[in-house]
Amino acid sequence: MDNQPQKLTTASGRPYAENENSQSAGARGPLLLQDYILHEKMAHFNRERIPERVVHAKGSGAYGTFTVTNDITQYTRARLFNQVGKETRVFMRFSTVGGEKGSADTERDPRGFAVKFYTEEGNWDLVGNNTPVFFVKDPKKFGDFIHTQKRDPYTNLKSPTMMWDYWSLNPESLHQVLILMSDRGTPVGYRFMNGYGSHTFSLINAKGERFWVKFHFKSMQGIRNFSGPEADAMKARDLDFAQRDLLEAIDNGHYPKWALKVQIMPEADAKTYKWNPFDLTKVWPHKDYPLIDVGVLELNQNPDNYFAEVEQSAFAPAHVVDGIGYSPDKMLQGRLLSYPDAHRYRLGGNYEQIPVNRCPYAVHNYQRDGQMRVDGNGGRTPNYFPNSFDTIVADASYKEPAQTLDSLVADWYDRNAPGDNDHYTQPGILFREVMTPEQQMATVQNIVTAMRGISGPKKEQIVFRQLCHFFRADMSLGMAIARGLNVNVDQFMPTAQSAHA
To answer: Which of this chain's residues are annotated to bind heme (predicted)?
Structure first.
C-alpha cells in the first residue's frame, strides 16, 4: 500500500489534475479568473515567508538527547536532573546574531546557542550565546546596540563607523568586544564552539534553598576557530558552511556533543562578591566558582523540514521549569518580556502549538482563540479560572521561595555608577592571562582590520576614544593596536598611565 500513488489535492483535500497549465481563453488567450488552483498556488507562495528574526535570523538546528551524568540534586529539584542516566529530548538552534537570513555563516559575530529541553514539567529554554558575556548590561540599550550591527539607514551598508562609535561610547562593551575580535569571533561552524547561558539564573532545591547559577556547554569536539583571513576565504567559497557542516556531520553519524557544566554561587555570596554577579558584562572566575559536571548533550537527528522545525522554532528565557528560576540580571529581566513578544509577532499568539515548540506532555491553561489555534481550543471546557466545572488546580508545591529585596527603592539607577563601572579589569585579564601570545597577536590584527573601516568626519574622535579603552584594559594591547593603526601613542600615555596608577 505504501507504494500506491497518492492523489494531488488542494489544502482542503480537493483532488485536481492541472498543476502546471493555467486555464486560458484559447491556447494563446488571457487567463481566466476561475482557475482557483492558479490563485491558490500563487497566494500561498506569496505568503511562504514569515518575518525573519530581528536578530539571530540565520541559523541551523537539530534534535538530540541530554543525559545526566552527575548528581546535582543538592542544588535543584528540577526533574530532568533528578537521576543519573536520565535522558531528556532536546531541540537545539545555532545562529549568527547580526546578519540577515542570507548572510554568511562565517561572519565575525557572536553565535546564538539555544537549547529546548522537552521535560515532563514543561519546556525549558536555555537561550544563550557562544560567549559568557555580552556588549551591554541594561535592556534599554539593546535595540540601539543592534541597530549598529545592522545597516546604515542612509547607505544600507554595514558600517564599522557605527559599531566602533557605539562601542567607544559604551566602555561596558569592552569585554565582549575583545572576545569578538579574537578568533573566537569566527568559529569553525557550530560543532567546535562552547555555549553559555550567559545570564545568571537560579536553582532551587527540594528544601527551598536558592543558588545562583551559570550554565556552560563545553564542546567535546574541541575548540576550532578560523583566523580572520580564513573566515573571509570561506565566505567566498561557501556562505552556508556552518549549516552544511552540522547537517552532514549528523547525517554521517558524527554526532556532536557538549558537556553541560554549572557554576554555583550560594545566594548570600551575591551581596559581598567583588563584582556584581548579575552583570552580563562580567564572568565569575573559575577559581572562585569552579565548574561542576552535570551531563552530556548530543545532537543525533536532523529535522525533516527546515522551515517547520528550525525557522518556526521559538526559544524564550522566560520558559523555565520548577527548580530553575530567574535572577536580578537586568538583561535577563528584559528578555523575559521581549522574547515571547517577538515570537508572537513573528509566528502568532499560538506559536507554542507549533510541533517543534509544543510541550509533549500535558498542558492545562485558559488561553483560547487567536490565529492558527489548532489544538481544539479547549473544546467545551471553561475558559476562565476559577470555575466550578473542571479539575485544574494551582499546585502550591511549585511555589518558589521568597526573595528578600531589602526594602530597595524603585528608581532609574545608573548601571555604570561607582562600584559597577570597572569595565577594564576583566578584559585586561582576558588579554594578559587567558590568551596565548598567538591569540593576542590574532586579536590585535583583527581589531586593527576592523577599526580601519571607520570613516567620516568623526573618525579620529572615535578611534582615539576606543584606543583609550584598550589602553585602560592593558597597556601592551593599546600600544599594539595604536601601532597597527599608525596612531602616535605619546598622546595616550598620560591617560593610560593614570588609569593604571
So the answer is: 339
